[in-house]
Amino acid sequence: MDIPYAEEVRPDTGLTNGKIAIWLFLASEVMLFGALFASYILIRTGAESWPRGDTLLDVPLATFNTIVLITSSITMVMAWASLMRNRFGTYRIYMGATILLGFVFLTVKYFEYSHHLSLGEFPSTNNFLAVYYTMTGLHMLHVLGGMVVNAYFWGPGATLWKTNPVWFTNRVEHSGLFWHFVDLVWIFLFPTLYLL
Amino acid sequence: MTSDHAAAPMTSDHAADIDKHVRVYITVFVALMVLTVATVAVSYLDLSVPMAVTVALIIATVKGSLVACYFMHLISEKKLIHAVLILTAVFFVALILLPILTVNDSFGIDG
Prior knowledge:
The complex is a heterodimer of chains A (196) and B (111). Chain A is elongated, with a radius of gyration of 19 Å. In chain A, α4 runs antiparallel to α5. Helices cover 79% and strands 0% of the residues of chain A. Chain A has 196 residues and is mostly helical. Chain B has 111 residues and is mostly helical. Chain B has three helices and no strands. The longest helix of chain B has 32 residues, at 12-43. The termini of chain B are far apart. The chains are: A mainly alpha (196), B mainly alpha (111). Chains A and B meet through α1, α3 and α7 of A and α1, α2 and α3 of B.
């Protein structure tokens, strides 16, 4: 049995079911990260003192990672645009670049975490580090999840392009929406944790 | 971008439309890079904490809006998606306000 409204839009909503589904999922994600940001505000405003992020964290490295993630957002949207232009080869290049940039982001985070852990800075050390590890850790899991899905659409999932290019293009667009959301979260995490 | 038939990678009309959008994506990308530099630059100014928080959040909101409107195509999205997001925004604001009201702990308490 075919999945309904995977290619054609539903007459009543004007959208494919996949599009509605990914936005509902992202709405739940907003609340998930919202809860963490609310907790951060509560912990910070309740603290007698709070360190500036740049006294404990590596701002140039985080700035580099911000640039990496924003660049991955444009490669992601260009991957989708390539499919809309019927250029599957170009899609593969852009999607591959997106996955690679995600890998660069995680590698930088690995070195950042390793540095802090080698200094004995654990989540249990203080509230600042607890917030830092929790929020960046959850964000990293999202980057990893997005990379897995994107890798599927770059590799085995791309066979759908031959049989049903419209559906495949929709799937890549939905995957892109998640990836851009991950970028959007980092845009707020970066100043909140590293600069203020 | 949302058309009546969701993604439709076959037609030349769409190809021309996509070309136009690609130029917008590149412009947005450049703006995001400039704003990232601005975010870091502002942090080196000797601003008070409330002012620094305000400026940083304004820049982050502009950047986030650019990503949502153009990369996520919200600017041309259907009303149903906007309705879902408005509802989400209401709950998100309530969630963020909760701890702020808690810190001002006279809220809701007589005397």
